[in-house]
Amino acid sequence: xxxxxxxxxxxxxKKELTExxxxxxxxxxxxxxxxxxxxxxxxxxxxMLRLKAIEAxxxxxxxxxxxxxxxxxxxxxxxxxxxxxxxxxxxLQDVFSKEEIFAFVEELQQELEAPExxxxxxxxxxxxxxxxxxGELVRAITRGDGIVQGEDxxxxxxxxxxxxxxxxxxxxxxxxxxxxxxEKKAFDAVNAxxxxxxxxxxxxxxxxxxxxxxxxxxxxxxxxxxxxxxxxLQTARGRTFTTHTEAYDFMKKQGIKVIHGYKVCHTAxxxxxxxxxxxxxxxxxxYDIDGAVVKLNNLADxxxxxxxxxxxxxxxxxxxxxxxxxTVIRKIELSVGRTGRITPTAVFDPIRLCGTTVxxxxxHNQDFIDNLDVRIGDxxxxxxxxxxIPKVKEVVKEKRPAGTEPxxxxxxxxxxxxxxxxxxxxxxxKCKNPSCPAQLESHILNFVGRSAMDIKGLGEAAIHxxxxxxxxxxxxxxxxxxxKREELIEKGIIGKEKNxxxxxxxxxxxxxxxxQRLLTGLxxxxxxxxxxxxxxxxxxxxxxxxxxxxxxILEVRDMGEISxxxxxxxxxxxxxxxxxxxxxxxxxxxxxxxxxxxxxKFAGKTFVITGTLPSLSRKDAAALIESHGGRVAGSVSKKxxxxxxxxxxxxxxxxxxDLGITILDEAGLQALLED
Length: 675
Prior knowledge:
Its EC number is 6.5.1.2. This protein has 675 residues and is an alpha+beta fold. Strands 2-11-10-3-9 form a five-stranded mixed β-sheet. Strands 14-13-12-15-16 form a five-stranded antiparallel β-sheet. Helix 3 (98-111) runs antiparallel to helix 9 (268-280) and helix 12 packs across helix 13. The chain starts with 7 loop residues before the first helix and ends with a helix.
């Protein structure tokens, strides 16, 4: 039967398989290569279970590169050179129920004679192999692709306290595998330092540990206090081991830190009791675990059973349900964003989830609050989406105290007291006062940002003071600050004399910016840097755009109806017209004098840039592409023509590969330009 004549159901199955595999590959890359997962282990596991179920039903549709057939990660060059694996570092098959555990144990009992099982904690970290020659540590390697090669992280491994540099028994060759992780206490200290330095905190200990192990500077690795548990003997020469626990005993005598609390079991009941005990103690551990591992104790039995292309047949990982905890909501705060949207946030008693302490979670909007019936004083169950973002799952209504009342956002802005109105056909309630201080603060932060007017030196604290002390009521008032220099210095709002003059000079210099920067800074919904440039290339000036109709704006490349409507509404608003008049009076540039176009070799082509290029910064690469008529977008889509990828390219590279998009390095970009 020809493919086109296949039953519709098979076509649907193939389509779902394609989407599932694509989605799983994307999340594999986020987890293994970028150390920045977007979804929880549980959500990922559900995707894999669905994929396995379909492939079990339609084995003829299994492909060699399906995520069920390959290990998830890829070796990267960020930490060092790539090293070949002597022994594959395979992943484990995940199971989620008591029945699956019993089936695994009983199957091996039928195949082997009186097998013993070892049950251990499954540490949530980054896998690493250590190689010793004549008792000396010679190499430390990450899992990488799990089969062929991993990254050399020897220098970083040597500064981890738990890594043994010399063994008492100098075996000719001894390779072991363990998990690099970060204790909760060490993780909190790292994040406290990140906040002190004004840097972005890490999402969870696993991400922090993985990123730290791949650091190029071992001093940073040392100061972050990583930990290591060894959980397997990979191979040895010079001594023979009969069992896994015998190898553990040998390692302990060498001073090697092996995973603690492991238990030897003989029956399925004993295995399940050990798994249950680990789960019950999960919250008391100083580190995060994401499951329990069940493995054969006898090494000869392991050799006999072997492995599939992806997982050993002699071990299995039980995954506990997503961690969630109960807490009590003490208040619900309302905040106002740049567009006037009011967002409710639950503030609750602090709880520990996935390695971090959380005490806040968004409640999104009134509909979300109503659907869950969330009230102040309620006990709620909180979990982490993607093990990163805290979310309220449900209200424990049997614990609701007497006298609670439904929470209503109301019809008044919590910041300025102006009317707040629910937008038609949406869940958004917005403050209708364009001069609302909360909106103004967010608006100014956007206006002075790098993608807009790029006015350096004006941070959130300074902007808050400028608004609070009455120096700024609109974004245009920034250009009046020069006349208030002495008062600014006297009050120390921006800083002392030198810093104040520096900021005022940056504001003055921004008047000469290209008009697309001003357009970006106006904060029109949907109009970012790329769209603003396209609009200015088409219309030539802010004034011309202000006079354009929706139909004329829709002629601009990639411009949609919603954005066109928002532009027309902005320029027709009297408050906006007043702000534009103030800009004009201050001498802010409205006209595109030089398009920056050298030629139009890249006209009609959309590029995305990712990773670190050898000689060009991303900003320079974008300018080069745009000077030849190309468009630079921030994310990969079906409309992308080329991905320019440098060192340590992340998920964008994977997505471009999946979509069949042409991938260029810096030399390829230059060659394309020359052609």
